[in-house]
Amino acid sequence: MTAERVDVAAVGDAPRDSAGPVFNAPWEAQAFALAVALSERGAFTWKEWAATLAEVIGEARARGEPDTGERYYEHWLEALERIVARIGLVDGVRLEQRRRQWQAAARRTPHGQPIMLHPDD
Question: I need a surface site. Which of 6, 38, 48, 65 has the fewest CB within 10 A?
Answer without folding.
Answer: 65
